UniProtKB/TrEMBL annotation:
<keyword id="KW-0413">Isomerase</keyword>
<protein>
    <submittedName>
        <fullName>N-acylglucosamine 2-epimerase</fullName>
        <ecNumber>5.1.3.8</ecNumber>
    </submittedName>
</protein>
<dbReference type="InterPro" id="IPR010819">
    <property type="entry name" value="AGE/CE"/>
</dbReference>
<dbReference type="GO" id="GO:0050121">
    <property type="term" value="F:N-acylglucosamine 2-epimerase activity"/>
</dbReference>
<dbReference type="GO" id="GO:0005975">
    <property type="term" value="P:carbohydrate metabolic process"/>
</dbReference>
<dbReference type="InterPro" id="IPR012341">
    <property type="entry name" value="6hp_glycosidase-like_sf"/>
</dbReference>
<comment type="similarity">
    <text>Belongs to the N-acylglucosamine 2-epimerase family.</text>
</comment>
<dbReference type="InterPro" id="IPR008928">
    <property type="entry name" value="6-hairpin_glycosidase_sf"/>
</dbReference>
<dbReference type="Pfam" id="PF07221">
    <property type="entry name" value="GlcNAc_2-epim"/>
</dbReference>
Length: 395
């Protein structure tokens, strides 16, 4: 690459401007609920509301993003207020009597559905910790830590969370393992407690021991209790976007540990393997799912291009370049960025499409639903801005 400094400067400015002028205004205008508090995410292409059901995940996710943007990009009081609105809604409406959070609620906070996951808790905790940093109110850091410990209790209490499979199939999943790294890391930025480092170490060890399968050059989504390969459709599943997200979580932790060589090696191995599995050599972009034996994938969306694997790859490529200085990863960043920005942003109505067919055409134009909203895209822009700025300053 001819002029790396110019490249990094251009992207830093682009991320900052896009976040400030496009993504955050879109969600403050169309998503923020001024009456009940919290955020709507089920919005159409132009931001019009399609469904008032509120995703509990997104109360925490946007609570985090608004505070994270405030801390890292601009001290915009609207962003801080939006974060507080989401957290207030969470505390008022999103916990069941047993302490386990709901998955969906009505616009005024009446419960609709619970699920067996603890992702609602993880996102609520990072919202509280980031808001604590932004506001200076330490009580929210203590709330985040307490919620994290409660989440660990849910996970370790037999029978509290309904298992995914009946007892005939014993398995462990990658998703919760990887999300606990990021959750503990984000809380640790606001408050210190040994339980956070312990959880990160345990998750890193589990990824290393159980989920990385060199025989397939892959990180698998589901394995047996001791990492055994399960030769079923679900056991063979590779989710390149999840794997790449894990790689940058590990690189971020390696950075906190003065670029721990073993963590960097593990993260780059996951990134390189997952790029090879995920990058669509015919159409471009990161594909949804692959089978580690190259058999047909069961999931109906297996060959689609979703928004979030692209954003995770953009972040991971920048972290990998920062860790190594190897321009291979800057070229990866350019390759994924060129494809992503050619297909996902909606230049007429703002924000990004979420769901594309394999060839990059739009599958459906809505800007949000229960799973897509103001999280992956703004997180990529905030992290991208921070990393490009750091890289440029160190040139």
């Amino acid at each position: 690459m001819d002029n790396v400094t110019d490249y990094l400067r251009t992207w830093a400015e682009s991320y900052q401007q896009d976040l400030t002028d496009n993504i955050m205004p879109f969600w403050l205008r169309h998503g923020l609920d001024g009456k009940h508090g919290g955020v709507y995410t089920c919005v159409n292409r132009n931001g019009s509301l399609m469904d008032t059901t509120k995703s509990v995940w997104f109360q925490g996710r946007f609570g985090f993003i608004a505070a994270f943007a405030y801390n890292q990009v601009a001290k915009n009081p609207e962003w801080l207020a939006a974060s507080k609105s989401c957290i207030d809604f969470i505390e008022a409406h999103c916990f069941d009597e047993d302490g386990h959070m709901f998955f969906e609620v009505t616009e005024d906070g009446r419960p609709l559905r619970k699920r067996r996951y603890v992702f609602s808790e993880c996102f609520a905790a990072i919202a509280m910790s980031e808001y604590s940093i932004a506001s200076g109110d330490k009580t929210y850091a203590f709330k985040a830590l307490e919620l994290f410990k409660q989440t660990q209790k849910f996970l370790s209490t037999p029978g509290f969370l309904e298992p995914k499979y009946l007892p005939v199939l014993q398995a462990r999943g990658h998703s919760i393992t990887m999300i606990l790294i990021n959750t503990a890391s984000r809380i640790r930025a606001a408050i210190s407690d040994p339980v956070l480092n312990t959880q990160i170490d345990e998750s890193l060890d589990a990824i290393r021991r159980y989920f990385i399968h060199p025989e397939f050059k892959a990180l698998l989504e589901m394995v047996g209790p001791e990492g055994e390969f399960i030769d079923t459709c679900n056991g063979r599943l590779i989710n390149p976007g999840h794997c790449i997200e894990t790689s940058w979580f590990i690189l971020e932790e390696a950075k906190c540990r003065n670029w721990d060589k073993e963590l960097v090696r593990m993260a780059l191995q996951i990134l390189d393997w997952s790029w090879e599995w995920g990058w669509d050599k015919e159409y471009g972009g990161i594909i949804n799912f692959r089978d580690c034996r190259n058999l047909p994938v069961q999931d109906y969306s297996q060959d689609m291009k979703f928004w979030w694997p692209q954003t995770e790859t953009i972040i991971a490529a920048l972290y990998a370049y920062q860790a190594t200085g190897d321009e291979k990863y800057l070229k990866m960043h350019k390759q994924i960025s060129d494809w992503t920005y050619a297909h996902f942003p909606d230049k007429e109505c703002g924000e990004w499409y979420g769901y594309l067919h394999r060839d990059g055409t739009v599958a459906q134009p809505a800007k949000g639903n229960i799973f897509k909203g103001p999280f992956h895209v703004p997180r990529m822009m905030i992290c991208g801005y921070m990393l490009c700025k750091e890289l440029k300053e160190n040139k």
